[in-house]
Write a structure and sequence with these properties.
elongated, 17 helices, alpha+beta, 5-stranded antiparallel beta sheet
Length: 446
């Protein structure tokens, strides 16, 4: 790893003293990485006895194989490569079979013992790298052994079986690269697939299905809807689809965006049946939530929350899991006195366990519980999901238990060890726990 430091003269005069003024440039770093790319090849030579007598210097070659971006081949000389040996030895070489300059590599040549005893004859240079480094080869350059094995020993050994030899070659190509800071980059723009699909919806080009929602009709594309929603996929392409389905009437969903004004219990009950087709299609094509305030036409947090509740129900109905999760996250951030009860009921009905837990914890707080109970949404929650009251009481009890565990009376700490004393002193803890209010909650559950 190299480190470079440099000092640069200021490009124009500064207010420093008459002595030389320099600026220190942040040091840069680079890293050199050397590694071995390894591969192997097995060369099977059958009919060995028939290859003898072809002449000194004549060879049998393997198929070309690739390792480390270069091509290699094995060369076997049945009568040897060197005339002075008078065909007493077989020769074996590995050669670079592709163009390359100073290709650095390590080699291993192995003649396999076919008796099963694994007494292979091995010539390896992989350990040689620790001593003098890898070999350097150019095009057609080779490395091997003129006297790889004496023929008289080979022909009476376990290396030759059924007139067949098995030879393995292992090649390790040594590569070095230097990594430094990236001085030049090409900026990549984020994916605009959602924008393109959104523009397709806006242009209405190629639409092949319509949805009748209330008194309005929305045009869309079957393939886009089927790709995004398993419910639409079954409806448009499933076994129960109608052959000439061009217009689908959507029940229990209103097309216009809600006019968010003062709402009563009837508005909360409508959450189960109403929805915004425009917002739903926006997400299906754009893969993002629409601007809630722009959609409802009001700068109201409660109005945006009600639209998010509304979209969550629609997302669950059409199997849009990502939209459902986005709505959960938005509702989790916007839990308030006015919305907590309706959001809790919605979370229960649409199996949103995380959102449900957040709402229960919020409502169970002593400073929130009384105010939430006075909202119309709490009445809707009692009517639609009465089992939630039991769960809510459990949360209130746990918070009460925790508060009592840290309530002290002089030198006495209430830790639950003395039940009679605890009941006696509970009355004196009225500033921390409004016990009558807790009984009131329990009475509601009963």
């Amino acid at each position: 790893m190299g480190i470079c430091e440099a000092c640069a003269e200021p490009t124009k005069p500064s207010s420093c003293s008459s002595s030389a003024c320099t600026a220190i440039v942040t040091p840069t770093t680079s890293t050199s990485r050397t590694e071995t790319v390894t591969g192997s090849h097995q060369f099977v030579i059958t009919g060995y006895s028939l290859s003898k007598g072809t002449g000194i210097g004549r060879y049998i070659t393997s198929e070309v194989f690739d390792v480390g971006g270069y091509s290699w081949a094995m060369y076997f000389y049945p009568d040897g490569k060197s005339p002075e040996d008078n065909a007493a030895y077989v020769s074996l070489f590995i050669a670079l079979a592709s163009e390359g300059t100073d290709v650095r590599a390590l080699f291993e040549l192995k003649l396999l013992d076919q008796s099963g005893n694994e007494r292979h004859k091995i010539h390896s240079h992989f350990e040689r790298a620790l001593e003098s480094g890898p070999y350097s080869l150019k095009y057609r350059g080779s490395m091997g052994y003129k006297r790889f094995f004496k023929r008289s020993f080979l022909e009476g050994s376990d290396y030759l079986k059924d007139d067949c030899l098995l030879i393995e070659c292992k090649v390790g190509v040594v590569k070095t690269q230097t990594e430094g800071p990236k001085l030049y980059t090409i900026p990549l723009s984020p994916s605009d697939m959602g924008k393109q699909f959104g523009q397709l919806l806006e242009s209405q080009k190629g639409t092949d299905v319509s949805f009748e929602v209330g008194e309005e009709v929305f045009a869309a594309h079957k393939l886009v809807l089927a790709a995004r929603s398993p419910v639409f996929r079954a409806q448009l392409f499933g076994p129960m689809k109608e052959k000439s389905m061009q217009c689908i009437k959507v029940e229990d969903m209103e097309a216009p965006v809600f006019k968010f004004q003062q709402r009563g219990v009837s508005d909360y009950l409508a959450l189960q049946t109403e929805g915004s087709g425009e917002a739903l299609l926006h997400f299906i094509y754009w893969d993002e939530l629409p601007d809630m305030q722009e959609l409802v036409g009001l700068n109201s947090k409660d109005a945006s929350t009600l639209m998010a509740q509304h979209l969550l129900a629609a997302a669950d109905r059409y199997g849009l899991d990502r939209l459902k999760l986005l709505c959960e996250a938005m509702l989790c951030e916007d839990v308030s006195i006015n919305t907590a009860a309706t959001t809790l009921a919605l979370a229960e009905q649409h199996h949103c366990s995380q959102l449900k837990s957040v709402c229960l914890k919020f409502i169970a707080l002593r400073e929130n519980l009384r105010a939430v109970m006075q909202t119309d949404g709490f009445g809707y929650m009692k009517a639609s999901c009465p089992s939630l009251l039991t769960e809510l009481l459990g949360y209130v009890a746990r918070i009460t238990e925790h508060s009592l565990s840290v309530c002290t009376f002089g030198d006495v700490l209430l830790d639950g060890s003395d039940a009679n004393k605890r009941r006696a002193e509970l009355v004196n803890c009225y500033e921390l726990i409004d016990f009558r209010f807790l009984l009131h909650v329990f009475y509601i559950v009963i």
